[in-house]
Write a structure and sequence with these properties.
Helix content: 40-55%
Distance between the termini: 35 Å
Number of strands: 7
Largest sheet: 7 strands, parallel
Low-confidence stretches: none
Order of helices and strands: EHEHEHEHEHEHHE
Strand content: 5-15%
CATH architecture: 3-Layer(aba) Sandwich
CATH topology: Rossmann fold
Mean pLDDT: 96
């Protein structure tokens, strides 16, 4: 293996890694040599992933965190530093959507987006990365060559029905990525984002649902298959390693071409 891609001995923190894409990223970073702190909304989910990291022969510890709450994120930074020291790799992988139109529409879809729902979705998709940067940025700036990776979305500039809060949050996350890349570049800290397409999570789908998802994506995605969690992890390895030492402020879409059609 090219040493440029190795994360041997690096310390990573994956926030929102108790399931789905974050889980996939945490496990592939560990496979490539990183020791990984796993943080999730529930300690149970975080511990399962941390156990998977340990099975790969890497050090790991699990914590519960509310990534949209400043006090919770600051507390995470304290316990992470106590157990691991300052991290070299920060992955912000929190996000979710409530699909509702902004206001009630005469001909549907049903529902509307009250302020509490709007704020919740924007906080999940944007504010968590701001809080991550605030809590862990000072440590990253002390470690030239460290990186922050934000997990965004393949939906960059296309309008979608009943998706304004999610899309606005992810679009702002992309801009936050670019702005922080400029702010932190003098300290040799790189900031990039990954924009995944549709990645069914086997842990959250029944076998029948997963089969149906895969069949539907096989027909719809130009490359003819669904996204697999490992795919995002492999891209994260590149962005976390010295192989991408001249890359910052970029949003890498990984969607099998879905965003092109």
């Amino acid at each position: 293996m090219l040493k440029d891609y190795s994360l041997e001995g690096k310390r990573a923190l994956c926030i929102g890694a108790g399931r789905g894409i974050g889980k996939g990223v945490a496990l592939v970073l560990a496979e490539d040599g990183a020791n990984v702190v796993v943080a999730s909304a529930t300690l149970e989910n975080a511990q399962k992933v941390a156990d998977g990291v340990s099975e790969l022969g890497r050090e790991s510890v699990a914590f519960a965190v509310d990534a949209t709450d400043e006090a919770s994120m600051i507390a995470l930074s304290v316990v992470t530093r106590e157990h691991f020291g300052d991290v070299d790799i920060l992955v912000n992988c929190v996000g979710d959507s409530i699909r509702k139109p902004l206001i009630s529409l005469p001909n549907g879809p049903e529902g509307e987006m009250p302020f509490d729902d709007w704020k919740h979705v924007v906080d999940l998709n944007l504010t968590h990365a701001y809080l991550g940067a605030r809590a862990f940025g000072p440590g990253l700036l002390k470690r030239p060559g460290s990186t922050m990776i934000n997990i965004s979305s393949y939906v960059n500039s296309r309008g979608r029905l009943a998706s304004a809060a999610y899309n606005a949050g992810k679009a702002a996350l992309n801009q936050l990525t670019r702005d922080l890349a400029v702010e932190w570049a003098p300290y040799r800290v790189r900031v990039n984002a990954i924009g995944p397409g549709v990645f069914p999570d086997p842990d959250q789908r029944t076998p029948e649902q997963l089969k149906n998802d895969i069949e539907e994506l096989n027909a719809r995605v130009p490359l003819g298959r669904e996204g697999r969690l490992r795919d995002v992890g492999l891209l994260a390895v590149y962005l976390a390693s010295e192989a991408s030492s001249y890359v910052t402020g970029q949003v890498y879409v990984i969607d099998g071409g879905l965003g092109l059609v």
